Amino acid sequence: MKTKVLGSSLIIAGTTIGAGMLALPLVSASLGFFTASLLMVGIWAIMSYTSLLMLEVHQHGERNATLHSLAFQFLGKYGQLIATFAMLFLFYALCAAYIAGGSEQFHSKINSITPFELSKTASTVLFTVIVATVISLGTKAVDIINRGLFTLKLVMLVSILVFLTPNITGEYLLSLPVHQGVFITALPVIFTSFGFHGSIPAIVNYLELDIKKIRLSLLIGSSLPLIIYLFWQGITLGQLSQADFEQVEGLGHFILTIQQSIDMTFIQQALSLFADLALLTSFIGVSLGLFEFLRDSSKKWQQSSIITALLTYTPPVLFAIFYPEGFILALGYAAIALVILALFLPVALTISARKIHKNAAYQVAGGNIGLFVVTMFGFIIIGSQIINSL
Question: What is the mean pLDDT of the chain?
């Protein structure tokens, strides 16, 4: 059983750690390492708290209950519709971010190995078609491919963390926020990097609704990304000054700038490969979820992978074509959907569940004050993204 708890923790950590990790240094460099770290710890605490709220709600549902069934059980049809809309919004926004970031990397690499030069639009379409082809092979094939890619990604990450640590400049880590407005820019993206709530129903089912084991898995699984993020922040922000980061334009430029600050060829290649794999594995996971979600939502599409693929990839591809540097922008919009799924819905479900089940076996501490703080924090994130958009 301990193995299942560990496995569940790693599933949560794997769900959390994705391509959003690449955006963290870009949006938090102006904050400075210590300020960004405090913000991360605060967001981690809130996200862990709302995951425990979801566990409290799950104890009143079926073992195999999903977010949709719980939303219908406690909030009715309209609550279920809101959950469905937020899920689709989140999927599409993340796919748009990963296509924008992935195609930028793909564009530079494909043109370096081919005698002719592809346009950015052609690179975006080709990159998406390759991933869509992999997804069309089925979940089993995707699982096998993704395991290999994820293992290689972890090897590259460990190599980067080990070899770059001696190159950290302590003076860079002591930098203070450049100006107050940087909080507004960084908040939505950092928040999105801690999203794992979509995997909670699977963990609940896997651990057979054992409250103690699920609670332990949620806390361990959410803490691992925090630790890795803090190390990643320290290493990346310790390589360049704030002035250098202000000159960085886009994900590709960020990777290139970090590479130029490193003398070791192996680590330069490892960093580039890690960035590619982080984007690719995240894109595969999210687009597979969106593909299956759309296919299962209508019997008309269940026999037509082509129609489902067009519905899955056309909107995010159009975004990436019109906003080729939209990696950070799309992650910011994903934060709005994640606020609904990871903050507002857990609070609403908890309030409803506590009214119905007043003497529940498990209840998260914090009472109404905790629920109020989470709700206000959600509005702050949405407000920050609206201001960023304007």
Answer: 86
- Cα angle vertex 84, ends 80, 89, to 5°? 145
Tell me the residue range of the domain where 77 lies.
Answer: 1-388
CATH number at residue 140: 1.20.1740.10
Please tell me the predicted confidence (pLDDT) of residue 260. Answer: 79
Find the mean pLDDT for residues 179-187. Answer: 81
Mean pLDDT of 187-210: 88
pLDDT above 80 (res 299) = no
Instruction: Please state the domain count of the chain.
Output: 1
> pTM for this one?
0.86
